[in-house]
Input
Amino acid sequence: MNSKAIYPGTFDPVTNGHLDIIQRATKLFDQVIVAVAENPKKQPWFTLAERVRMVEAAVDSQKVTVIGFNTLLVDCARQHDTAVVIRGLRAVSDFEFEFQLAGMNRRLSPDLETVFLTPAEQFSFVSSSMIREIAQLGGDVSAFVPTVVMGALATKLTD
Output
């Protein structure tokens, strides 16, 4: 069986928690599409192209394809012929939003299923927004992000 899943997110920036979810997903699916959302509503620090490049540089798997998208997730999933969405849950507080999102996606596309994965314990508190805040205030985030992100954060903060 050729199984494929899509893992959407803003990834602003990609964290080791995201990479852990991607790695876990590759154990469950033959192919994982990491779909980096444009999402201007969130006012991302990095451009879509920069975020796609960071994820590509951080992921080392033949099973993973990284794309950018600016459509509804259900349309992106349909375009890439996948019926499974991967979502990460760090804590119970994530569940309510993710549950609503999964329900809406199922309503918009009844064949689309959502699978929730949890990151390793050491990443359960890591979020992109927290990484940005710590970096902006001069803190060390090297334990929470791949090397490529450290360089991108340094460049962003000196611009």
Observations:
- The chain has a mean pLDDT of 93.
- The longest strand covers residues 31-37.
